[in-house]
Amino acid sequence: MKRLIGWLMVVVLVAFSQDIRERFRAQSVKAEAAGLAEPFRGVTAKGAVEPGLFAVKSTGVSTEPVRKAAVAFLAGLTEEQRAKTKFPVDDPEWRKWMNQHFYIRQGVSFQEMNDKQRELGFGLLKVSLSADGLKLSRDIMKLNETLGELNNNNFTEYGEWRYHITVMGEPSKDKPWGWQIDGHHLIINYFVLGDQVVMTPTFVGSEPVIATMGKYKGTAILQEEPKMGLSLIRTFDDGQKKKAVLEVAKPANNNVGEAFKDNVVLDYAGLRGSEMTPAQKKALVTLVAKYVGNMDAGHAKVKMAEVEKHLENTWFAWIGGTQDDSVFYYRIHSPVILIEFDHQRPAGLRNLIKEQVPNKEHVHVVIRTPNGNDYGKDLLRQHYAMAKH
Question: Per the confidence metrics, is the pTM higher than 0.90?
Answer without folding.
Answer: yes
